[in-house]
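ugh ok so i messed up the first submission bc i forgot one of the chains. this is the corrected input, ALL of the components this time, i swear. 502 residues overall. if the numbers dont match what u have on ur side tell me asap before i send this to the collaborators (the ones from the other lab, u know who)
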Amino acid sequence: MTTPSGFSPRTQAVLATQRDDAWWMAPLGTSVGLLLFIVYATWAAFQGKDFQWGPYHSPFYSPLIVLDWWPISPAFLIIWIPAGFRLTCYYFRKAYYRSLLLTPPACAVGARPQRYRGEKAFFLFQNLHRYFLYLALVFLGVHLYDLYHAFWFHNGFGVGVGTLVILFDVLFLGAYIFGCNSLRHLVGGNLNCFSCASFGHTRHNAWKITTRFNLHHRGWAWVSLVWVGFTDLYIRLLAMGMITDFRLL
Amino acid sequence: MSGNHEQMGKTVKVRVFRGEGGQGALKEHDVPVTPGMVVLDAVHHIQAADSGDLAARWNCKAGKCGSCAAEVNGKPKLMCMTRMDTLPQDQPVTIEPLQTFPHLRDLVTDVSWNFQVNKTIPPLNPKPREADGTYRMAQMDIDRVQEFHKCIECFLCQDVCHILRNHKAEDFAGPRFLVRNAALCMHPLDTEDRLPDLKDKFNLGYCNITKCCTEVCPEEIHITDNAIIPLKERLAGRFYDPLAALGRVLKGD
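and heres the new structure output, hopefully the right one now
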């Protein structure tokens, strides 16, 4: 396949481009957004307290696993699962390959010079994404349980602002997971002939549903990321007594 | 910005790369802008007005032949599908040849490497015909493949792909030919096992799914989400998924 003269000998230095638009805004905004979330999530996970208030439970600490011998915050027993799911997510890969690793920083902008191996060497671990998906689906079930729990106050059924915050967290997380490329493959994308397969029509419908969510995977990825952080912050501020939860019902 | 008619009738400065074999410079021309004008019209105006020897490929002027691929203000685009009123007109419009492929003259590059890669892809190897001598396919099975058949081979995706453009990886097929592989791999009639070639010959693993190919595709093919990522998932299932491997062993595959 190789032909020595296949490409132009012209080289493009990192960040060099003829583009005249503000191409740097997207990678800069993505870097800032990702780093802000990582800093907040790491800080919140290290706290080891203020993650529950009334019927609300922070998603950073759910499911809560308490082990006597575990020396640090219980968040670290579970937070690697959503972190691994997002780290290996096809959208977030694009986001940090562009904004943090500069390979490339933007389209038609010079990539970081290196001995490029793409996802054939170190980044081969990205193929674990499907396993993180399986765990994320379990997590979604746990979040659903937390949502159910958020309707039951000490005096019975009710709806607070926090209940709605947790409801949206579950909805956004679900929309993000249902658009996952690995899920899309799992439910039907791996078939060449839907009409020949067992449950082919059902799988085709499932594939079409995941495709609809997948079209907006980037949007759901960001909305769910921001909202899960906000959910933790809301419950943390309640637990610290800094804000009051309004009961709607 | 489209439909910016108050700017029509203006003269815009258009800088076109002139030269041979990669050597040359941008030459500036004054081009009157008319309603509905596209960048290819500007090139034709320059040829007609003062540079009859300006070399530029074009054919259909309808976004269907893929000939007039170039870099307009640094972005890979079809000149015939890029309206002048979508570009900032308070600064010069820059037109350069595709940067990834060897430069021949002015706006023309040698894209023949792509045709050589294409020849290395095994063609469709269909399963036997049915008893009545026909092939039958359900629409639901062929929908995905039909999207890939929209490709006009303009090679904008190959030009913008940083693996070819910056890293010059000659052992990477590039987005266009991953799309062709996807069209064959997902074809309901095809019997060829294409995954080993995708892994080792076309080096699908080089792709880090940064989606520039999708961004520049004039046919709006979802190259990354519908072709490359599904192929990556198939590769993961075949070569990098121990549970799937165990399943194949238990099933005796």
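quick check: Chain B touches chain A through 63 residues (CB under 8 Å). that seems consistent at least. The domain at 112-251 of chain B is CATH 1.10.1060.10 (Fumarate Reductase Iron-sulfur Protein; Chain B, domain 2).
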